[in-house]
Amino acid sequence: EPPGAPGTMRIRARYLFTPEGQGTALAKNGYGVIATVGGFDILKTDTAMPYAFVLPRGADARPDSAREVNAELSSGRVVLTASAQAGDRIVALETFYPGWTVRVDDGAAAPADAYMGVLSAVAAPGAHRYVFEYRPASFAWGLVLSGGAAALLLALLVAGKRLTGIFR
């Protein structure tokens, strides 16, 4: 567990949809009805963690201690632009799985780590660009095995055509 990691992190949705009239029941949890559309109450809270943030060294993961950062998302890739101090942690609310890597300012890739089960890395001091990419070893093995199977199938088809030509 990283230094300063709390026992739990409350990850809440910023917006919720409930059947019309039932949204007020969530007011005690910090949600408020902002609109009713098409038979649904739309609720919002300001106590949700941002998707991507810098967490100062030793701070608990709470909305008031996290500093939101810019995030760009694409399939298997999260790019965060942040300014931090030594020992801070940069976090994205993506489930961590082995295979995530992180590059800082297009440098060498290093394994990313998990902070409370989500994607993170120890931040470098100053302003940097963090590129997290999901490239599990199982994907590379799958490509190798699929390519090998396709090559074997092609070889068998070619050999089969040659053999049928001989026996005609």
Topology:
Elements lengths: L14 E5 L12 E6 L2 E5 L7 E4 L11 E2 L1 E5 L2 E8 L4 E7 L4 E5 L5 E2 L1 E3 L2 E5 L3 E9 L2 H30 L2
Antiparallel strand pairs: 1-3, 2-3, 4-5, 4-8, 6-7, 7-13, 8-12, 9-10, 9-13, 11-12
Describe what you observe in this structure.
The strands form three sheets. This protein has a five-stranded antiparallel sheet with strand order 5-4-8-12-11, with no helix packed on it. It has a five-stranded antiparallel sheet with strand order 6-7-13-9-10, with no helix packed on it. By secondary structure, it is an alpha+beta fold. The chain has one helix at residues 137-166, and strands at residues 15-19, 32-37, 40-44, 52-55, 67-68, 70-74, 77-84, 89-95, 100-104, 110-111, 113-115, 118-122, 126-134. Strand 11 (113-115) and strand 12 form a beta hairpin. The protein starts with 14 loop residues before the first strand and ends with a helix.
Distance between the termini: 71 Å
* Helix-strand sequence: EEEEEEEEEEEEEH
Percent range of helical residues: 10-25%
Largest sheet report: 5 strands, antiparallel
Residue windows where pLDDT falls under 50 for at least 5 positions: 1-6
